[in-house]
Design a protein that fits this description.
The protein has about 800 residues and is α+β, with helices and mostly antiparallel strands. The chain has five domains: about 1-150, 2-Layer Sandwich (BirA Bifunctional Protein, domain 2), CATH 3.30.930.10; about 155-280; about 350-460, Elongation Factor Tu (Ef-tu), domain 3; about 465-625, Threonyl-tRNA Synthetase, Chain A, domain 2; about 675-795, Roll (Diaminopimelate Epimerase, Chain A, domain 1). The chain has 21 helices and 34 strands.
Length: about 800
């Protein structure tokens, strides 16, 4: 894990070095004599500052001429010299100081890197000063923990010791000799896997999920090297949670999911691991140090047995055997088939196992929902709390699969259908439907009455009102998507969506906010197609033909050889004029013609993340209800302002300006009253404290931003000294500002003084510059005590 502190145009080298030295030697209590630093060979300023602040002798400030001590983003961009802080673990460990011939030894370990970003590389030949130099530092948590715990190796810190001990206990193999690396890999990779799963990543064959799978499988191979025959890693999860759950509560919340995911993945991988290792052994049996495994065999291990390339490389590294990565990549490009050991789907890993098994037993659910909202079927399985049940009675929460269903399973952003499943003597109230196990439609709900068992005949009926809302909002999503591409450009691509019975949400790629005129144009274009009452057609096509015809594929969706293509409307503007307005690959449910949508009302847009925007909208009756509510609000506001509705904006604007004027006048009046000692405020008192002029004052109702101006004025009046002002707000809180005149720089720090004052009023620290700092606290009644704290700090 990485720690760091940053400054963007505020403090720079002197403060960064001072902060680092104070934290390491005072707060962490490290022995100064064991610390040494490096600076870039031309950075005389950093060299001199280390001598001034830390008192380090020249021999413990090493000038380094390589790029190890000069940080850059790339060929161009911000850059600057680095200063690295090293800890000397002692002469009993081999290795020399940085810059020496044996610097690669383990005696001197870098614990902190201070990057002084002060230049901009314009071209490879031209470098200019940054207008606002910045600080970017990085400290290794495990490294500093090792130093503070008196150990040399990161794996000997308390966190890893506990996990390694658990691995030793679980395997019965001591962490000694060539077994030590395997225990360490298990401990490290368990931690990484657990945090990824807690963040919502599940193992898969692509993206983040594949990164997770590679991490997990490398650890699983090392578990196999230790002789573990059964899944191991999931058994270590409670130890990890006990160790780190206090600091990272997400681990505690996700403990069950983490354990189940690890167990399932290891169980599945275990089936192929032994066979894969056998194949690898056979392929390399006659090889020796320096030989190379061919890429085709390495790819077969990946494609057939789920061995990531780096796992194969790791397995052969001890024997000095390499892998033909070019040949592997060639085979990968030629054959994109997914690994047979992979699994896919949505939902928690624990759910997936049972649904895959039921899919194997009963086959896929036949979906009838495009043609009907009511159908008959046979209940094939009932699941309660993740386990198969022979029956369910009234009140039981169940997940049910039926041989055929009109219920749409959540997919492509569209929520699943709700409704009823009726059987002889009872019914199930279905609250949601999801796709599981690559082909099952699982109905989630509660048995409302009666007892139900597998094999019973059932009548399934979708909630017609909710389905109608889903159809409207899903078709509207297509219209809005195309309108966004019309207005903003062809770069707009779907990044996620939600289609609910009463609203829609659409995430898309776009680098900046959409202004009001663009939003209005998007709404107008989409509603033009609604007003066409154009038929919405669906047809099945080969996926390549559909893409060639211009159909858009949606973010995150996987398509088979044959796809369902939904088209609607005729474009009346732009390059597609006269052609089909919207053409998308989509498995969702839609209106029969665009007129059924009624109207589309956009509610606004905002940022979701870097380069991704989100738009929300309502359709039909939901949109009309929203517009009626807005109209009612406008009339209510107009009545309060005693103006016609069309004049409300002008009237409110006038009132806002009037309020600003009155607030300015009130603030000025408060300042004058406070400085005069009226309104409960104390008059400013000037005194000598520790040979320094000190002026302190308690005020009432002055905001912190105004306090700064008052402190600056007071500093100018006294010429030399310290000014502290504490303002009590109406809600009983305190704001504290401390200023120090320039002539006292280096002798007195406003930050230190304001922190003392903050503690007196119940605050937690404070911050700013050496000449001006501010803080706050919840206890304004102790304002005078805050001034006393400043006096004491000055006197001390």
């Amino acid at each position: 894990e990485m720690l760091g502190n940053f400054s963007f145009g505020d403090y720079f080298k002197e403060e960064a070095i001072s902060h680092a030295w104070e934290l390491l030697t005072k707060e962490f209590g490290l022995d100064q004599n064991r610390l040494m630093v490096t600076v870039y060979h031309t950075d005389d300023q950093a060299f001199d500052l280390w001598k001034k602040i830390a008192g380090l002798p020249d021999e413990r400030i090493v000038r380094i001429a390589t790029h190890d001590n000069f940080w850059a983003m790339g060929d161009t961009g911000p850059c600057g010299p680095c200063s690295e802080i090293f800890y000397d673990h002692g002469d009993h460990i081999p290795g020399g100081p940085p810059g020496s011939p044996d610097e690669d030894g383990d005696r001197f370990i870098e614990i902190w890197n201070l990057v002084f970003m002060q230049f901009e590389q314009v071209t490879p030949e031209e470098r200019i000063d940054l207008p606002k130099p910045s600080i970017d530092t990085g400290m290794g948590l495990e490294r500093i923990a090792a130093v503070m715990q008196g150990v040399h190796d990161n794996y000997d810190i308390d966190l890893f010791r506990t996990l390694i001990a658990a691995s030793v206990e679980a395997t019965g193999v001591a962490a000694e000799g060539d077994k030590t690396p395997s225990h360490r890999v298990i401990a490290d990779h368990l931690r990484a896997s657990a945090f990824l799963i807690a963040d919502g990543v599940l193992p898969s064959n692509e993206g983040r999920g594949y990164v997770l799978r590679r991490i997990m499988r490398r650890a699983m191979r090392h578990a196999s090297l230790l002789g573990a025959k059964d899944p191991l890693m999931y058994r270590l999860v409670p130890v990890l949670v006990d160790e780190m759950g206090g600091a990272y509560p997400e681990l505690t919340r996700a403990e069950k999911l983490i354990a189940e995911t690890l167990e399932l993945e290891e169980t599945r991988f275990r089936r192929t691991l032994d066979r894969g290792l056998t194949l690898l052994g056979e392929a390399t049996n006659s090889m020796s140090d320096g030989d190379q495994l061919d890429g085709e065999t390495a790819f077969k291990l990946y494609d057939t047995y789920g061995f990531p390339l780096d796992l194969t490389q790791d397995a052969l590294r001890r024997r000095g055997i390499g892998v033909d990565t070019d040949g592997f990549n060639t085979a990968m490009e030629r054959q994109k088939a997914e690994a047979r050991a992979s699994w896919a789907g949505s939902g928690e890993a624990a759910d997936e196992r049972i649904w895959f098994e039921l899919k194997e037993q009963h086959g896929a659910t036949e979906f009838l929902g495009y043609e009907t909202e009511q159908a008959e079927g046979v209940i094939q399985a009932i699941v309660i709390d993740g386990k198969l049940a022979n029956q369910a009675k009234a009140g039981d929460a169940v997940a049910v699969i039926v041989n055929q269903t009109p219920f749409y399973g959540e997919s492509g952003g569209q929520q699943g259908d709700r409704g009823e499943i009726r059987f002889e003597g009872g019914r199930i109230q279905v609250s949601d439907t999801k796709k599981r196990g690559e082909g099952l439609h699982v109905h989630y709900g509660t048995v409302a009455e009666g007892e139900v068992t597998p094999g019973m005949a059932a009548e399934l009926e979708v909630d017609h009102g909710a389905r109608a809302g889903l159809r409207r909002h899903h078709s509207a999503t297509h219209l809005v998507h195309e309108a966004l591409r019309n207005v903003l450009g062809e770069h707009v691509a779907q990044k996620g969506s939600l289609v609910a019975p009463n609203r829609l949400r659409f995430d898309f790629s776009h680098p900046k906010a959409i202004d009001a005129s663009e939003l209005a144009e998007v709404e107008d274009i989409a509603n033009e197609i609604v007003q066409q009452s154009a038929p919405v057609s669906t047809r099945l096509m080969a996926v390549d033909d559909a893409i060639e015809a211009g159909a858009m594929a949606l973010f995150g969706e996987k398509y088979g050889d044959e796809v369902r293509v939904v088209s609607m409307g005729t474009a009346k503007r732009g390059p597609k004029t006269g052609k089909t307005y919207s053409l998308e690959l989509c498995g969702g449910t839609h209106v029969a013609n665009t007129g059924e949508i009624g109207v589309i009302k956009l509610l606004g847009e905002g940022a979701v993340g870097s380069g991704v925007r989100r738009i929300e909208a309502l359709t039909g009756a939901d949109a009309l209800s929203y517009l009626e509510e807005q109209e009612t609000r406008v009339h209510d506001i107009a009545d309060l302002l005693k103006v016609p509705p069309q004049d409300t904006v002008a009237r409110v604007s006038a009132l806002v300006e009037e309020r600003k004027r009155l607030e300015r006048e009130l603030a000025e009046a408060k300042k004058k009253l406070a400085l005069g000692g009226g309104d409960g405020s104390s008059a400013a008192q000037t005194e000598e404290v520790g040979g320094i002029t000190f002026q302190g004052q308690v005020l009432d109702g002055i905001p912190a931003k105004d306090l700064k101006g008052l402190v600056d004025d007071a500093k100018a009046r006294i010429g030399s000294g310290v000014v502290a002002m504490v303002s009590r707000s109406d809600d009983g809180k305190a704001a504290v500002v401390v200023g120090v005149t320039d002539d006292l720089a280096g002798k007195v720090s406003a930050v230190d003084l304001v922190r003392a004052a903050s503690s007196a009023v119940g605050g937690k620290g404070g911050g700013g510059r050496p000449d001006m700092a501010q803080a706050g606290g919840p206890d304004g009644a102790k304002a005078e005590e805050a001034l006393d704290a400043v006096r004491a700090a000055l006197a001390g």
